[in-house]
């Protein structure tokens, strides 16, 4: 369930979606450089997902496939998934894909995202554990937000384990814990 | 107390896993007399010099620190057994040997607090480190292919507490992603968007928010 | 240690050979692992608190009557360990309450202890007042809700626990998680979606790790 206050979710919904207006609309200034406040039917603009969604529901606009899910990206991901710089295409690639799929009627999106994630996830895993304390590799700069989270999850639990193993004073009692609850000081 | 975790990251800290391991029973040989201890966590003793008895690891370590006993390393920590386990771990790509659930923590605590009670400690330590490394490596390898199983669950047979804890944040997240992308919600459904939405109320008073909001407001008026 | 745990968490049956401390440890582990707040173990906590008080008195007596310091310090450690478990158990529950206060107040209040109920009411009232005073009351009336974005919608602004979280768990007897195409073997650890095993966790048939 999406969390209303989830900052990632909020930013994700700011992703631009290409839309085509199905109706002419008055009193709207979509393009600041335009001289009129009028949008013709057939106009193509990019709107943030949250806005495009509302207009889509009202059948004012029709959504197009965003560039990050176009045919070329799909081919590239299919050829060598781990080498594609998804971060620059869409930081919220997977989340955006999940949201947009039903709206653009893309039935293959799920399996496409899944197979992209699968190939890339293996790379992340290998890097995360091997490069535990070395400088982040080029791979990192290619990762989407979720992939980065995944990488960091793996790294931080490995680091936490190493820290535990090296040890240190165990179970030091905070001075407040030693006091008896009943003592009335 | 130290070592509490942020619940959103990993569930248990290394110290908390160790805390659980400290309740495992070990055999000690006291060098003094002491009455039975009737504790919250159980009854132990009585203690007589040279008479072996079972106590939880934390109690054993506490007595050991004060020079009141020696600790008998558990049988699985013998060189013969560890050598056999290491070979078997190396022989099998997939299966894990059966070790105590807390073998990492127990051995680590004994190395730290009772080094003089472990015969051939250098050998034992290096065997356990090797076993742990081989197993960790195997865990990683198996993770790389785990989506071939049903992606909605993964069996982690014979993994130890520390190993499970180590992979938990990563595996949990990855599985969630697998699950999400394989979910039926991705088939077309115009009401699928359940997140934050602006409401389409009429007569919304003027508020200077941002460009998109104004555009939206005007549009909903225009319709 | 964790083999052969019984499901009778709160029954206090006399045949149960486990100590209350072991039951508390199990409750603590479940609470830490579960994404949502579980049923408060009221009977168990009551017994543990009594035992802690008794033990505190005993340790005090020992100290006063000159029992050897080693014995006293060992009892003190036992006490410290139990108190750690109890405090951590309370703390993780409070964290969940703070995180999901509105959801818990409206849907899971029966899972709380009396004190937690008071706490959740206070939390909700304070947060709501704060949000209203600082922002919401300045907004048009249709935007003033803390809970929903529009009047005809469900409470879509309320943070809820994520039940699709994957948890590590184990069953004592073969168990088929809900909506999952496989059977869980006994005494083997699995990563499974919490939602699929929630019912069994509540019934004490599946243990979280």
UniProtKB/TrEMBL annotation, chain A:
InterPro entries: GINS_A, GINS_bundle-like_dom_sf, GINS_Psf3, GINS_Psf3_sf, PSF3_N. Belongs to the GINS3/PSF3 family. This is Uncharacterized protein. It comes from the Eukaryota. Pfam families: PSF3_N (PF22466), Sld5 (PF05916). Residues 72-164 form the GINS subunit domain. One of its GO terms (cellular component) is GINS complex. SUPFAM superfamilies: GINS helical bundle-like, PriA/YqbF domain. It comes from Malus domestica (Apple). Residues 5-55 form the DNA replication complex GINS protein PSF3 N-terminal domain. Keywords: DNA replication, Nucleus. CDD domains: GINS_A_psf3, GINS_B_Psf3. It is found in: Nucleus. GO terms for biological process: mitotic DNA replication initiation.
UniProtKB/TrEMBL annotation, chain B:
Residues 15-71 form the DNA replication complex GINS protein PSF2 N-terminal domain. It holds the Pfam family Sld5. One of its GO terms (biological process) is double-strand break repair via break-induced replication. InterPro entries: GINS_A (IPR021151), GINS_bundle-like_dom_sf (IPR036224), GINS_Psf2 (IPR007257), PSF2_N (IPR056784). Residues 76-171 form the GINS subunit domain. Transmembrane segments: none annotated. It comes from the Eukaryota. It is found in: Nucleus. Component of the GINS complex. Belongs to the GINS2/PSF2 family. This is DNA replication complex GINS protein PSF2. It comes from Malus domestica (Apple).
TrEMBL record, chain C:
It is found in: Nucleus. This is DNA replication complex GINS protein SLD5. Belongs to the GINS4/SLD5 family. One of its GO terms (biological process) is DNA-templated DNA replication. The GINS complex plays an essential role in the initiation of DNA replication. Residues 161-208 form the DNA replication complex GINS protein SLD5 C-terminal domain. It comes from Malus domestica. InterPro entries: GINS_A (IPR021151), GINS_bundle-like_dom_sf (IPR036224), GINS_Sld5 (IPR008591), SLD5_C (IPR031633), Sld5_GINS_A (IPR038749). Keywords: DNA replication, Nucleus. The keyword Nucleus applies. Coiled coil: none annotated. It comes from the Eukaryota. SUPFAM superfamilies: GINS helical bundle-like, PriA/YqbF domain. Its main location: nucleus.
């Amino acid at each position: 369930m999406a969390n209303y206050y989830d900052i990632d979710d909020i930013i994700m919904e700011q992703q631009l979606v290409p839309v085509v207006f199905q109706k002419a609309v008055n009193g709207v200034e979509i393009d600041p450089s335009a001289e009129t406040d009028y949008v013709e039917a057939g106009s193509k603009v990019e709107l943030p997902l949250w806005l495009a969604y509302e207009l889509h529901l009202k059948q004012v606009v029709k959504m197009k496939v965003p560039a990050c899910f176009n045919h070329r990206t799909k081919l590239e991901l299919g050829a060598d998934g781990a080498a594609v710089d998804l971060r620059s295409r869409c930081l919220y690639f997977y989340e955006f894909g999940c949201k947009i799929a039903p709206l653009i009627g893309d039935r293959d999106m799920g399996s496409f995202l899944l197979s992209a994630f699968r190939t890339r996830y293996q790379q992340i895993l290998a890097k995360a554990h091997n490069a535990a304390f070395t400088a982040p590799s080029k791979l990192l700069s290619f990762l989407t937000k979720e992939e980065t989270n995944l990488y960091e999850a793996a790294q931080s639990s490995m680091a936490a384990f190493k820290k535990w193993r090296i040890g240190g004073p165990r179970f030091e009692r905070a001075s407040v814990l030693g006091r008896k609850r009943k003592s009335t000081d | 107390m130290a070592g509490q975790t942020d619940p959103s990251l990993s569930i248990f800290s290394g110290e908390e896993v160790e805390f659980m391991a400290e309740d495992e029973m070990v055999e000690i040989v006291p060098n003094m007399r002491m009455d039975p201890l009737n504790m919250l966590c159980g009854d132990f003793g009585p203690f007589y010099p040279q008479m072996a008895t079972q106590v939880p690891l934390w109690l054993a370590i506490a007595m050991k620190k004060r020079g009141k006993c020696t600790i008998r390393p558990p049988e699985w920590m013998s060189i013969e057994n560890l050598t056999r386990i290491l070979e078997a771990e190396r022989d099998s790509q997939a299966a894990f040997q059966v070790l105590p659930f807390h073998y990492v923590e127990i051995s680590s605590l004994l190395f730290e607090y009772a080094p003089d009670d472990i015969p051939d400690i250098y050998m034992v330590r290096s065997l356990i480190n090797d076993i742990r490394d081989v197993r960790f490596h195997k865990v990683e390898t198996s993770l790389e292919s785990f989506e071939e199983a049903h992606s909605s669950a993964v069996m982690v047979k014979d993994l130890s507490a520390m190993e499970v804890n180590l992979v938990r944040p990563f595996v949990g997240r990855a599985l969630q992603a697998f699950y999400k992308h394989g979910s039926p919600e991705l088939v077309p459904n115009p009401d699928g968007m359940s997140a934050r939405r602006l409401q389409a109320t009429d007569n919304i008073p003027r508020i200077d928010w941002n460009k998109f909001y104004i555009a939206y407001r005007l549009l909903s008026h225009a319709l | 240690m964790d083999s052969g745990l019984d499901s009778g968490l709160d029954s206090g049956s006399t045949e149960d050979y486990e100590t209350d401390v072991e039951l508390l440890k199990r409750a603590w582990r479940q609470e830490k692992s579960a994404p949502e707040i579980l049923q408060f173990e009221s009977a168990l906590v009551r017994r543990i608190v009594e035992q802690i008080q008794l033990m505190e008195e005993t340790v005090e007596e020992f100290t006063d009557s000159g029992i050897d310091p080693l014995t006293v310090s060992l009892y003190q450690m036992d006490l410290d360990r139990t108190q750690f478990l109890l405090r951590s158990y309370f703390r993780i529950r409070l964290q969940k309450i703070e995180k999901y206060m509105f959801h818990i107040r409206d849907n899971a209040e029966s899972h709380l202890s009396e004190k937690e109920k008071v706490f959740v009411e206070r939390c909700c009232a304070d947060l709501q007042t704060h949000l209203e005073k600082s922002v919401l009351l300045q907004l048009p009336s249709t935007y003033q809700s803390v809970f929903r974005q529009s009047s005809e919608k469900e409470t879509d602004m309320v943070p809820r626990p994520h039940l699709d979280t994957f948890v590590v768990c184990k069953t004592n007897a073969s168990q088929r998680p809900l909506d999952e195409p496989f059977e869980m073997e006994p005494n083997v650890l699995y990563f499974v979606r919490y939602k699929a095993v929630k019912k069994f966790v509540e019934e004490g048939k599946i243990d979280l790790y």
